[in-house]
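Hey team,

Sharing the Protein-L-isoaspartate O-methyltransferase run so nobody has to redo it. Sequence (385 residues) first:
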Amino acid sequence: MSTPERLVQILTNKGALRPGSPWADSVAEVPRELFLPGVIEADDRTIDRTHTPKRWAWAVYADLPLITQINEGQDLGEDAYQRPTSSSSMPTIMLQMLDLLDTREGQRVFEAGAGTGYNAAWLCHRLGSDYVTTMDVDPVVAKQAEANLAKAGFTPRALCGNAENGTPDGGPYDRTIATFTVADIPYAWVEQTIDGGRIVAPWGGGIYHYSFAVLDVHDGRASGRFVGYPAFMRTRTQLPQGGRQRDFYHHEDDGTLSRTHVSPREISGDADALFWIDTTVRDAWHRVGEADDGSEEATLWLFSADRSSWATAEYVPGQTEYEVEQYGPRCLWDEVEAAYQKWVDRGRPERDRAGLTVTREGQHVWLDNEDNSVATVPAALRIQS
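Structure output:
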């Protein structure tokens, strides 16, 4: 059985759709199939509705994220890195995000990132189309989302533009929600959200980007904490964080060697450490390369988003000193090690003790309470259009 009822059953069995959830009717009555193209990617496999209709329907009503666009819809050739740029999010994560949004009847919602339109459809089903505005930066995606919504009988205000700039009119909104990850919360979202309203957005840089920022707006500022472990595509307005190693690793004979007593494993294997490092080491990402010879050795790779700098830290079991190599204008390992040491000196706090405050002047991360600011988050590098 591959129907909305099957999706309801799956989400209920997993505890994602709780008894009495205000979203139960939306999940049951909005067909996900209306929001998906004939060719999708699920679990790293391409599924074509024409060739395997049962498999396609199974994926549609499974609790899976489904990729609907690669490389912004451009054919960059077979050798190009295949970067997912639009998708239908995992329903479990959609429910978690909407629960965090705490939307009530009669409230107006701005959605940054229309995607397929499926999330906006849930909002329209519950609140009414007149209460929902959705925006996507990609004109093709925005147009298709609007068409998908119309097929399902919904007519929200659907716009094309950079949602991080907010909307030129139509506000203020009671709730603002983003369906893509941002490294910094746009102040435009604070401005367009009513006093007492809420913003929910996947947040983080390239080192760690698995958090929802749940921020309440008061007196022109937004403040709140981090929860959950979502994985969303990044905004297109900021430099990509990730890719093929060969596209970022260059001048391999020109690196500077040094040694460290900080274990690369202690950093890469600790989500709390990575979160706190990410609050100050921005516009960079990491990857762990595991040795395949049974040695349990590994390499922690660090790359700058602008591709100018890289670093490696070599882990060998049983050692207390590790080889480091760095290249470029940024000494990425030095940045990561310094941030890690600050985290250790603070007593290794968990991510759940962190909070974020956004003002017109910028944003800062605090520990335990707003008065204890520990990091001013730098604005992310933007793609120049």
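The mean pLDDT is 95.

Ping me if you want the raw files.
A.
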